[in-house]
Amino acid sequence: MQIYENYNRKKIWTYPFLAAFLFAITLLAQKPEESAGEPYKGIPQLFQYGRLYYSDRAQTRLYTGEYREYHDNGTLKLEMQIRNGQPEGTYIVYFENRKPKDVRSYKEGKLHGLWRSYDLSGQLISEAEYRNGLKHGTWRIWDELGNLRYEMGYRDGKKVGNWRMWNERGELVDEKQY
Question: What is the CATH architecture assignment of 9-177?
Answer without folding.
Answer: Alpha-Beta Complex (3.90)
